[in-house]
Structure formats: structure tokens, C-alpha cells
User: Fold this.
Amino acid sequence: MTDQVAGHHGAPSTSHALPRALVALVAGAIFGFGLCLSGMVDPARVIGFLDIASGHWDPSLMFVLGGAVAVTMPGMLLQRRLSQPLLDRTFHVPATDRIEARLLAGSAIFGAGWGLAGFCPGPAVSSLSMGLGPVFLFVAAMAAGMMLHDRLIARTA
Assistant:
């Protein structure tokens, strides 16, 4: 899968820099609040959702996933009707929709990490505000993995 963006024609204009930053800040704050409110920042709750075999399955996060789909689908439908976003020149969508081995491998690694640690990137970053050592360790390892990918793996693909 390519990392190129379909129809990318350069960086957005600098006149949109502040509005883009403010929209990103507000969206990030709402996202972080939602993660905290839903319990996604609690690794025990996430692992309880993923552990369907123990007899102590916690289905509550299914409602979080349903809420995410309910918010995302109208946004995707709107995006398909617009020629460009309000604060950028183009929508940044994948250039391909092919499912390749790299996508499957990355998904498997992500799923294994989520299942073992009970964190995925968004909730992990939100959890930094709690000041817990294991959270800092997880985020540091996650950042190191991202940098390793960008420096070594993405360049060879």
C-alpha cells in the first residue's frame, strides 16, 4: 500500500494554519474526553471486552464502537459530496483500497498490542495525563516503533 495521498497538490495555505490548529485542538479534546468517558483509557476494561472466552466478557465497549460508526458514517457520506474540505486543498484519503500483506501484518501487530496491553494509540496518549509509569513506557515504546517504521521499513517499501 502506498503512503501517498490521492490527489495531493501541496501543503494547505498558511492562512488556514491557525483555524486548522484550533479545529485539531477542539477535535482532539473532544476525542480525549470521549475516550475517558467511555472507559477506553482503562486497560482492564479493554481487555475485558477483548476476552470473550473467560466468561467475564464486558460488552460495554461495543456501544463505544457503535457510537464511533454512527459519527463516522455521516461524515464519510458528507466528504464524498464535497469537492474539498473547508480548511485544506484536498481530502487525505488512501490512494488505494487493496488489502495487502503489509496491511494485514500491521493490523495483526496492532491487535496483539491492544490485546496484551489494553491500549491503542489514542487512549494511551489520553492516559498520559494520569501520570502513570506504565503508560509513559507504553507511549515511549509506541513512539519508538513508529520512528523505527518511518526510518527503516517505510523507506524500503
Confidence is low (pLDDT under 50) at residues 1-9.
